[in-house]
Amino acid sequence: MLIHRRRASQAGCQQSHRGVAATELALVLPLFVMLVLASIEACTMVFLNHSLSIASYEAVRVAINFDSTNSDVIDRFDTLIDARDVAGAALAISPANVATTPRGTQISLTATAPCDQNALLPPWFFGGKTLSVTTTMVKE
């Protein structure tokens, strides 16, 4: 009789633990999913920032050549941005015309892209923001 009572009490204990585990899952799973999604979105924005940096750097390398034109610079930028599937990217060149810029002058390129158009998830974390990268080199 004593053995039967212990088994009955152990069975109730297991059911109690199942309820605790279900409650813990219900509380922790949404937080864990949110953390994973935020990490994925942050990695996407790091990739976007790196893509803008690479495209800006390569375009300014073209801009500092003595025989380059603005269309050469824009073509190089667009080629790299298209290869990395960046949407809505824009390039600002300073000074406005690299062909007439004298040697020794700094040329700055500012690449921008909206986070909304390049996000994998709905705009929860980076909605309405724009990433911007500026690269400066001296004209050769």
TrEMBL record:
Keyword flag Membrane: yes
Short name of any one Pfam family annotated for the protein: TadE
Annotated TadE-like domain residues: 19-61
InterPro entries: TadE-like_dom
Chain segments annotated as transmembrane: 25-48
Keywords: Membrane, Transmembrane, Transmembrane helix
Protein name as it appears in the record: TadE-like protein
Organism of provenance: Bythopirellula goksoeyrii
